[in-house]
Amino acid sequence: MTETTKQFDIIVYGATSFVGQIMLEYLASYQDETISWAMAGRNEQKLLDAKQANNLEHIPHIIADADDEAALTAMCNQANVVISTVGPYALYGETLVKVCAQTGTDYCDLTGEPQWIRAMLDKYENTAKASGARIINSAGFDSIPSDLGVYALQQHALATTDKPAFHIKMRVRRIKGGASGGTIASMLNVVEEAGKNPALRKLLVNPYVLCPEGHPFKQYQTNHKKAQFEEDTQMWIMPFIMAAINERIVHRTNALLDNRYGEHFLYDEAMSAKKGLQAWGMTLGLGAFMVGASIKPIRNLLAKHILPKPGEGPSKHEQLNGMFDMRFYTTLDNGDKATVKVCGDRDPGYGSTAKMLTQAALCLAKDAPEVAGGFWTPAAALNDKLIARLAKHAGVTIELI
What we know:
Layout: E1 8-13, H1 18-28, E2 37-41, H2 44-53, E3 61-63, H3 69-76, E4 79-84, H4 89-92, H5 94-103, E5 106-109, H6 114-131, E6 134-136, H7 144-161, E7 167-176, H8 181-196, H9 198-204, E8 228-230, E9 235-238, H10 243-256, E10 266-273, H11 276-293, H12 296-306, H13 316-320, E11 323-331, E12 337-344, H14 348-366, E13 374-376, H15 378-381, H16 383-394, E14 396-400
Parallel strand pairs: 1-2, 1-4, 2-3, 4-5, 5-6, 6-13, 7-10
Antiparallel strand pairs: 7-11, 8-9, 9-10, 11-12, 12-14
């Protein structure tokens, strides 16, 4: 959507979800630029309560259920960009993507579900290209820091040596924050779907699953499954649960940018640890969780009695005192080493995600009229403009060190 003739710059759909409510707080105090916006969801009383809690009685609200195509169409016809926080997206997200693609309405979400993105690409990408709708998935902690961190480091490599970096590795140096019930529900749903569908399991392990048909990429990608000591970084590393979506978004970005990173580009992500005992302990804990989540009775027990439920998540104190520090390492074509540092000043999955998702939507609405219709990644569509916005408005910095 390249025109700004609609009533609202953005509509926050799922405004009473856990992330949605943080976005309302952010928008309630946002005075950096003039924006027109509304909130939307399926439960009017919850919307009214959220408006009152944030002194937003003057902000319009719209009622629309996730499977009500007529109501969603009426909503989309009022917005330049619709932000969706309604997950798991595999259960609740398709109708809104369909309507946005049909009506030429831009769209951003924070999904970490690669199998759902693949399904939406197959069903609606041609429709979005025809209507002019720009669809951007994974515009939160997964996968903006990874996508823009790689983009920034590759821009440096190309400017310095005129050649892309062959191999980039991301290591999470520090992370502090909690998990929400919505994210847990999405993870459990992916595990449940994969357990029922062997073809889906094969799809989920393909690092190029989100790349356009006919892409040339065949390079074997490293998949960190265990703790190990890494000689070149002199760190203990262990699996990073977000790698499953982040790595696939990065490879799609490479394809959308006409293979700017090279046809044989290598990219992998891992968490760092101070000691081997910590790395192995967290690796075994993650493995036990994934095994338990794959067994239906244990998965149900975890969902009902142990893990946070949808609508629950880290406290206000945890959000404000959370942070993340991610490092992107490479060796340039001339032999020099280069590192990009990506940092956020809030709990990554919620406090920072709410700000990143809002700024991605505003960037799409205000700064990117030249981007054509279709399914995009944050870096492929918004790149330097979004990097500048995040530093100015969202407490997320991306810098060469």
